[in-house]
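cache lookup: miss for this entity combination. No prior model stored, computing from scratch. Input as submitted by user K.M.:
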Amino acid sequence: MHHFAEKASGRRNFLSLLLKTAGALLSVPGISLAVSNAHRYRDYTVQDIIDIVLEEIPGAPFKETVDTLKSGSAGQQVTGIVTTMFPTVSVIAETARRRANFIIAHEPTFYNHLDDPQWVANNQVVQQKQALLQRHGIAVWRFHDYWHTHRPDGIGYGVLKKAGWEQYYQPGERMLQMPPAALKDIVAHLQRSLGIAHVRVIGDPAQQCARIVLVPGAAGGKMQVSMVEQAHPDVLIVGEVHEWETAEYIRDARAMGAKTALVVLGHAVSEEPGMEWLVDWLQPKVPGLTVAHIPSGDPFTWH
Amino acid sequence: MHHFAEKASGRRNFLSLLLKTAGALLSVPGISLAVSNAHRYRDYTVQDIIDIVLEEIPGAPFKETVDTLKSGSAGQQVTGIVTTMFPTVSVIAETARRRANFIIAHEPTFYNHLDDPQWVANNQVVQQKQALLQRHGIAVWRFHDYWHTHRPDGIGYGVLKKAGWEQYYQPGERMLQMPPAALKDIVAHLQRSLGIAHVRVIGDPAQQCARIVLVPGAAGGKMQVSMVEQAHPDVLIVGEVHEWETAEYIRDARAMGAKTALVVLGHAVSEEPGMEWLVDWLQPKVPGLTVAHIPSGDPFTWH
């Protein structure tokens, strides 16, 4: 189900590129060389790509954000862009194999939200991964806060699109109003459409659900519980929970008569469609570069 | 597999009780009534039970701890004690049915670590649960920090005991040195012995494991990752992870050649045996009271 989106490769609109490239390069040194290569695609640096993206994000750039470069440099020339959830070692290896060198990842590179390499002191795995990225000359930029700030939320919309639920999206509304369906059918639909092998559920498989709150990723117990308290949906669908927070809250609420069910999809697989949609969103903005999605996938096997 | 441990019921050692009771009651008002009822078991308040427990905990009482009363009062007479992981609505109902009124729970009552009822403002489920506890006159005491401080760690030892692994426990050592076994056989043994229907694993099912670090519950990514960095066990067995921390760390480490596998048992079921063992530990200290374990169980169904 996860395919390498190569929609842009093969498209060569020489005329528009020629104009854009010439315009961009006339103002920089090395112009004679640049013009002689004007039939080539424009060269983008990592910073160029970031700037192109941020133009579309309300309020960007943010003063405080985790969306920083985790490896590589802003000035390096981009040979190809890969989008993914987690820039895993496998994703890095596949990126290098494709001769791409810029990974846009939704989640951390070094196993903690701030990507502090000293979160665990002298972490050998962090050091090995830094060396691997450097060996391949790969830049990694986190695209978390900004993508969630895009309207519509890039992750949320990507998931809705992949699930075939875009028509239920109302701008500014968290709640999806859908034709009633049994919880078990909603779960089966999500597993099939998003390609998720296993999920965890709290709820009656037969209960009818029409009012759905979908919050991929790990939004935290306080936000998840608040949304249920405010909206009382028939089902809350999330990526990851703290079991002692949201899961126990839902279990108790149901035991005292509340209806809200909980579906836990898994963190990586719950948000991956948002990074897949990023390809469609970004590709037209960077003609000549290939933007591809490599899913990082569910880290677990289930027994 | 989860049975109601009623080991104490039916044991009536009148003579020793008579002596103890008389001794305790001679110093308090109402002595004539007390002595006339000296054939009854000693009456314990909630505070009496807490004091009896804390006598065995190094450094207790702690200045800062989450182990506080979540409902009821220190002065109320105890009619029976229930131990559990999460004091769920079901556990509360079963406690009331048994006419017990003191729940000793390892984890929060109100869905956040500090049991702040205003963690989510005006939380209706919290208010309903408070009313339920009050209606049944049930006191809930959290027994988390203290039980982990007991030597051996009450949770860890209870799990080892139930898994039949006590012989591998070395005081002061986190690492269990065991006869080598395939990861898949270790997983199957844990599922069978601890009664866990489903687990999530990262690792090669066939890999041999002899050096095991077992950390039930949700110790947090920093601690979990630190333990792997320090000890490089063949397998780390935990209750709950942040997927973006420990799970991704293990996935990457393995992709770069490290051996450590990860088994995620689920939070409640991973620590429940420690609250079951609390029955054996506490019952002899409170003669005449029934101490029983009611498992809170896995909140999820798995699909």
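stored under new cache key. Confidence is low (pLDDT under 50) at residues 1-40 of chain B.
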